[in-house]
Every structure is written in structure tokens, then in C-alpha cells.
Design brief:
Layout (H helix, E strand, L loop, with lengths): L13 H51 L1 H4 L6 H10 L21 H19 L5 E7 L12 E9 L6 H6 L4 E9 L1
Antiparallel strand pairs: 1-2, 2-3
Helix pairs in contact: 1-4, 3-4
């Protein structure tokens, strides 16, 4: 009886193991960076959805107090400046849920309260230097010129601390602005 003395060795060599580990490490690093970018893009989407919700909230407040907003002498930026000037202890109280509050007497009081509450909500939801704006503009869908038929409600926020994939790719602006047209 004759036995073959061939060495049948099964397994991997050390070089093959090292090459496989390098390939796997490169893949895992790519996956980790992809995950980090996905988290940043997800945060951007979250802020956009919050801003969109806040725009519609203010739009509803404007519709609810249309008596005030339809006046020709209303200066929306002045009411925003007044609302932003209130500190923590001194705020307009027009809500029965606020402690020590009385009901709003006039539509002016209600408008100031609405803008104040909206500003507080925007600062809470968008902590990246938000800017709010309310302005009268001509309605582009009608032929009326100078009719001031649309109120533009805008929220702008800084996202320089959370660059998204798009920004990294093309060096885009670090601010985002969302606008809502409110027709009375």
C-alpha cells in the first residue's frame, strides 16, 4: 500500500488575511462616514419640517385674527420687534392658560401675543440663530398692483454648524429660508 505524501493544506495565508482585513476596514470607514452624513441630513430635514409646521401655525394665527392683519397701517416688522423685546418675566398675556393672564382686549393685543408665542416657538425649535419676518407683498397670481393682498411669513435659520451632504458638495449657503403666503 502506497500512500500519497502530498500535503493537502487547507486554510488562508497570512497575506490573504491581511488583505481581507484592509478591504473590510476601508468598507467600514466608508460606511461610518455615510452614516454621519445621513445623520446630518436627517437633522436638516427635521429642522425643515419644524419650520414648515411653525409657518403654518403663524398662518393660522393670522387667519384667526384677520381683523388686525387686514388693516392698511399694520407694520408687521414693528410688531415682531416689540414681541422680540419681551423678556422672560415680561411677556404679553392673552391666554387663559398663562398664569395671571387676562383675555386679550383688542385684536392688537392678540396679534402681539400671537407673534410673541410664535417667536418663542421658533427659538425653541430652531436653535440655530433663527430670523422671522412677516411682510405685505403684492399677490403675484392676480392682476391687482399695489393691492397688498398677500402676507409673506418667513423663517430663516443658520445651519453652518450642521453642514449637509449638498452643502459639502457644492459649498452652498449656510442659511435656509422657508416662506408661506397667507391670503386674507
Amino acid at each position: 500500500m502506497r500512500r500519497d505524501k502530498k500535503n493537502n493544506m487547507n486554510g488562508f495565508t497570512l497575506i490573504e488575511v491581511l488583505v481581507a482585513m484592509v478591504v473590510m476596514a476601508i468598507g467600514l470607514l466608508g460606511l461610518a462616514s455615510l452614516q454621519a452624513l445621513a445623520l446630518k441630513d436627517n437633522q436638516d430635514a427635521y429642522f425643515r419640517s419644524q419650520a414648515n409646521f411653525l409657518l403654518y401655525e403663524m398662518g393660522d394665527r393670522i387667519h384667526a385674527n384677520a381683523e388686525y392683519w387686514k388693516r392698511s397701517y399694520v407694520d408687521p416688522q414693528a410688531i415682531i420687534a416689540t414681541a422680540q423685546a419681551y423678556g422672560v418675566g415680561s411677556q404679553p398675556n392673552c391666554n387663559a392658560a398663562d398664569p395671571g393672564s387676562a383675555a386679550c382686549v383688542t385684536s392688537d393685543d392678540l396679534a402681539l401675543y400671537d407673534v410673541y408665542r410664535w417667536w418663542q416657538d421658533v427659538k425653541t425649535a430652531l436653535p440655530l440663530n433663527p430670523i422671522i419676518s412677516i411682510a405685505w407683498e403684492d399677490d403675484p397670481t392676480t392682476l391687482t398692483i399695489g393691492g397688498n393682498e398677500v402676507i409673506k411669513v418667513r423663517i430663516t435659520w443658520d445651519k453652518s454648524r450642521q453642514p449637509t451632504t449638498e452643502q459639502q458638495a457644492n459649498g452652498a449657503s449656510t442659511t435656509t429660508t422657508l416662506t408661506l403666503d397667507v391670503r386674507l
